[in-house]
Amino acid sequence: MAETDPITFEVVRNALASIADEMALIVMRSAVSPVVRDTMDYSTALCDGDGRIIAQGLTLAVQLGAFPYIMDVIREKHADDAQPGDVFIANDPYGSGGQHLPDIYIIKPIFADGVRCGYAATMAHHCDVGGIAPGSVALHATDIHQEGLRLPLLKLYEAGRANDTLFQVIERNTRLPGQVLGDIQAQLAACRAAERGLLELHRRHGAARLELYLTALQDEAERRMRAAIRSIPDGAYRFTDWIDGVGEPPQPLAIAVTVTVADDEVTVDFAGTSAQIDAAINCPIAMSRSATFCAIRCLGAEDIPNAEGYMRPVTVKAPAGTILNPLPPAACGARGVIGYRVFDAIMGALAEVVPERVIAGGEGGPTLFSVGGTHEGRQYVLTEVLVSTWGARAGLDGLDGVSNPAANLSNYPVELVEAEMPLKVTRYGLVPDSGGAGRRRGGLAAERAFEFLGDKSEFTLRTDRRDHPPYGIAGGAPGGASANSFTPAAGVERGLPTMPMQSFIARRGDCVSLVSAGGGGYGEPYEREPERVLDDVLEGRVSPGAAAEHYGVVLDAAGTAVNAAATRHRRARRAAE
Amino acid sequence: MVGVRLGVDIGGTFTDIVLSEPEGATRRLKVLSTPDDYSRGILDGISRALTQAGADPAAVADLVHATTVATNTILEQKGARTALVTTRGFRDVLEMRRLRIPVLYDLQYRKPPPLVPRRLRFEVTGRLGPSGAEWEPLDTADLARVVAQVAEAGVESVAVSLLHSYADPAHEARVVAALREALPAEIFVCPSSEILPEIREYERTSTAVVNAYVGPVVARYMAALEAGLTARGIAGEVHIMLSNGGVMGVGAARRKPAYLVESGPAAGVIASARAARAAGHDNVISFDMGGTTAKAAMIEGGRVAKTTEYEVGAGINLSAKLVKGGGYPVKLPFVDVSEIGAGGGSLVRVDDGGRITVGPESAGADPGPVCYGRGGTAATLTDALVTLGYINPVAIADGAIRLDAAAARAAIERQVARPLAMPAQAAAHGVLALACATMTRAVKAVSTYRGRDPRDFTLMAFGGNGPVVAVEVARALAMRRVLVPPAPGVFSAVGLLYSDLEHELTRTVLGRWAAPTPGELDAVYGAMADEARAIVGGAGTVFERAAELRYRGQAYELPVSLAPGPPDLAALQRAFADEHERTYGYRSDDEPIELVNLKLVARRPVGGAPTRPAISGGGEGEGKGEGASREVYFGPDGGVHRTPLGGRGLLAAGPREGPLVIEEPDATCVVPPGSRARLDDAGNIDIEIDMTEHA
Questions:
Q1: I need a labelling partner for B125 at 20 to 30 A (CA). Which of A559, B357, B606, B665 fits?
Q2: Are A433 and A495 contacting, i.e. CB atoms less than 8 angstroms apart?
């Protein structure tokens, strides 16, 4: 860090982090849609005058890694004509750095003394941007033109003046204009707060000095990421994870990855991945790359600065025309399942060489359940993003009741669902025996079940990991498979496809149950300490039968203590086989 | 009230006792805390204080106590064996939480274990809907089965939290009645609708569980304390400080111990509000820095800012309001204190990559900073301050703690200066600057994050280390004035004597009326006042009415106060829109505004009349003599100065320009160059900072 002193470096880093967090807090508190305010499906970042990320709010990793793409587009199109009072908006995955249409970027350039010194950047998942089904994440869309309002990079404000035409277009293209416009206001408020904060920092340090430290911040992030990569032995590590596929019966889709480590650089190549398909799970490149950066970043220390310099030693190659780099007009509303699986696939590849630093397969990304209709004269849309479980780690059981590591989503309180929508939640909880067996056990799956109370509701669903459950590591068993079902008010329960190519109509009294996959295990299950297995049984996480079958642990008749002799015998017999 | 009043503030290391006599004389005493049984240290300390004062135990009129017992019970996971009874299908709500975790990119994360293990979470059949309508009756046979299981489980405490009980507590009440009938009388039973009748099942359940988990421990503690006081002939009333800055009697505190979790930090903020108001300052940010952490809170227009977003045991996390999941939510009124891990004992580290950090790890009191000579070898912020000359190089606390300045300097030299290739003085000043940068985040979290500009506020600095760094912190935020109260090191304990009996009530009225008339609103406030009066009691009770509103669809409300006179919905809505604009920078005049909660605070001064404990500054230059001075390094901008030293007496003759160091038994106050200090009428050191010099 030539020419900079380490004290000021930390002072600046601290101040930047504080601004990005303040942005995130403002969005959370002033947003109006459930998916933003409660599920917290949004992200905030601060960029320098060239659009390089210099800080990010504690929000969603998989969104944060996509900001560089929209900033590239802004640099390309508006390097010269951005002016004070401008605000940009975009959501288009093709040419504007978007991930899928509901994720809307709101980005404000910041000027100090007439010179651009930064950008405040936000992205939020909006509850509805039109399209063929409520929530705009219909998996059965086959073309992006069915998915709703497409916004290439545009100015929502120009020199402080609102673009009323654009506001009216947005208003007319969503089922819930109040919520969408309200959330845009929340994003704008966050941008204004960032502007104040960054200008204050400029006032204190001066442009030239601050620039020096921002460069140092990027270099430091890069240096630390390189050090983390260097600690992985050189080599090419391959893994293929599978998406169940769409419809019924589904055709599996491959996510093939080769992670090549060469000294302090890593290349992640997705050659061999399946071609794009006519369903809305194609994952635009912005998210594929973002998920890749997140996975590699997880191998480094937690205190790497949140500046995009950490991305420099990482090269991502995703062949065009595949599900990881689709060409227009591929639909992508429900792309998350593929994006999150990129994370799992990279973990699977690196398990071969640094198993102690990775994590076994988790639930595989959120189950997306979107339901809407008209109730008592008002339109409603519920977008549930159900996350649940982690795979096991070398030294630790998988977590349950937690968000996917590439996300950091929250859940929507049951009482609010019931207060605001014609729905009854009939169960929300953990599923016993769903954690993959291992010396360290995978996290448990979660179930969320609903009864429809409206006369007529329409829902779409996107899940996965029924046919290809989350993998285990080092002898650990895979996690439990997902299971989704529909039970009509007068009828029998039937299974739903994991990725149905249709929306469903539900009537009053019909029920739907969504069970996620469980996390994969780590290490040989027969090496798990019998006392831990006993504890799992007492906690209702593992049944006595599974304790014997999967772990070789036999309990006494009352089921409250380990039968040591029988356990030894059972485990020895298995070892002898 | 005539008689001796006692304030007792327990910290991790020291217990501060303040004794106030009727004639206005006030004494203070610092004794070591006794973590194995905190009441022992308190009782011994009180006896000593009474002896020193020559006061009769029978003359003690009341004792106000800030306690860490509830917080420590959770931090140490030593609460009661607790069961939870909840709605069928939802026993995992407590464990699944809100899913989010407080870190990104950490695959080795561990979740805090639930306070009630899964095997002690029982489900009962029966269901209410969101408006309280009964969707499914409570199943009597199933309830009997659950009650039998709870009875068999050998628990000390039971939380009951059923879906939508905020709308109608009837099902919970039946579960509670069945439990009370079947269980021994000493078992603590807490229905969620009693502790927090608000929507959102996880937060309500968590609050009830925390209450149940700490309940028996707090009750035992209170009983031991009361018994010990009785045995010493002290019969005065005992009041406990709450997290919101009010106090409760012991009986109420036993029933609702979750209200006590931030008892200690609240006291200092209340003291700040009172002391600042007395000195004519309405807008103040309190800044309390001790050995381990620094805490900031906002007082605006004389009112302490509060929050209900709090997690116990989450550790110190600046983004706590944003990133949840690190601790155990308690959604009750708290003084909004932002706490960060920067105190005198904070460890200074330089890693292999040349990155320097100060805190959050702390050397604590044992072994403490290197300069304490108690075996500490890792450089701390205090060692940097001694190296700079900010802190006396020989001894502090009236000579009670001897310092080894050479050892401090050597540690800074070896562990910080050399790895960073800087001179020792510059490195020490860098450590101070970095600590201040971290501390400014705590101040921002209670000000700019609420849309407030710190420049409109005075910084009230206290705690053992607050006055040492206050001017540096203020300057980093462009704040122009710092106040240092008398006896800053025991200021929180003094605050206990300022506190009022207080009870805060909330009624959720969302959706109750389309447009309530003043009479309808008055009826609700009137009922709340009756309930609060029964708790706070007596004449002289004053009520403050407030309401919480939001734009339709928002999840977070903003509070506004009611003007005197009949409550007017339109006026409330206007006040809300103004507050929204102030906090978030915009208003939406076309959006409907919802009235969510009505709030009422009932407040009665303890003993019926406010007392103002006067504390002499103490240590007026004793042992230092006229013209005492030492060299102090004020950083690259301030330079090295031969700096006059003394007690508050240094300012007796009138205002003085910095640099000055004011050394008192319990704290040191540093007045750097470019600032000017004087004593105000209340004995506060009032420091004005010249901003032009360091713009």
A1: A559
A2: no
CA–CA gap between residue B191 and residue B165 (Å, rounded): 9
What is the torsional sign of CA B241, B247, B251, B252? negative
Q: Which of B162, B176, B307, B330 is nearest to A415 (CA)?
A: B162
List of residues 6+ apart from B572 with CB closer than 8 A: B547, B549, B560, B562, B595
* B444: contact with A, CB 8 A cutoff: yes
Pairing of strands A265-269, A314-317: parallel
Note whether B133 contacts A: Cβ–Cβ < 8 A: no
What is the pTM for the complete model shown? 0.92
Amino acid at A370: S
Q: Are B212 and B157 in contact (CB under 8 A)?
A: yes
A193, A393, A418 ranked by CB distance to B130: nearest? A418
Quick check: B119 contacting A, CB < 8 Å?
Answer: yes
Domain boundary assignment for chain B:
4-73+229-260, 79-219, 499-608
Quick check: B111 and A541 CB within 8 A? no
| Helices and strands in chain B: count of H runs, count of E runs | 18, 37
**Whole-number pLDDT of residue B71:** 87
Helices A285-297 and A207-230 meet at what angle, rounded to 10? 70
Q: Yes or no: say if B264 and B258 are a contact pair by the CB < 8 Å rule.
A: no
Residue with the larger pLDDT of the pair A253 and B13: A253
CB contact under 8 A, B110 and A396: yes
| Whole-angstrom distance, CA of residue B475 vs CA of residue B670 | 13
Is the predicted pLDDT of residue A503 greater than 50, yes or no? Answer: yes
CA distance A26 to A15: 17
Summary count for chain A: helices (H), strands (E): 13, 20
pLDDT surpasses 50 at A281: yes
Interface residue B331 vs chain A (CB under 8 A): no
Whether residue A297 and residue B109 make contact (CB cut-off 8 A), yes or no, is no
Domain range summary for chain A, segments of one domain joined by +? 6-221, 359-528, 529-576
Q: Is A98 exposed, middle or buried (0-12, 13-18, 19+ CB in 10 A)?
A: buried
Query: Taking Cα atoms as reference points, which of B216, B206, B449, B218 lies closest to residue B326?
Result: B206
Residue A267's pLDDT band (cuts 50, 70, 90): very high
Query: Are the CB atoms for A74 and A153 separated by under 8 Å?
Result: yes
Q: What are phi and psi of B385, to 5 degrees?
A: -65, -35
Report residues of chain B scoring pLDDT below 50: 1, 319-320, 607-623, 693-695
pLDDT for B242-289, tens place per residue?
998 888 888 888 889 999 998 888 999 998 998 898 899 999 999 999
Q: Is the pLDDT of residue A350 over 80?
A: yes
Integer Cα distance of A157 and A70 in angstroms = 17
Chain B from 178 to 237: CB within 8 A of any A CB: 199-202
Distance CA B565, CA B467 (A): 43
Q: Write out chain A residues lying below 8 Å of B309, CB-based.
A: none
In CATH terms, B79-219 corresponds, of 1.10.150, 3.40.50, 1.10.540, 2.60.40, to 3.40.50
H-state helical runs in A206-302: 207-230, 285-297
CA triple B175-B176-B182, angle to 5 deg: 90
B517/A183 Cα distance (integer angstroms): 31
Contact A26 B584 (CB under 8 A): yes
Summarised one tens digit per residue, pLDDT across range A26-83 is: 998 889 998 898 888 999 999 999 999 999 988 888 888 899 999 999 999 998 899 9
Contacts of A419 in chain B (CB under 8 A): 130, 199
The predicted complex's ipTM stands at 0.94
d(CA A400, CA A385): 16
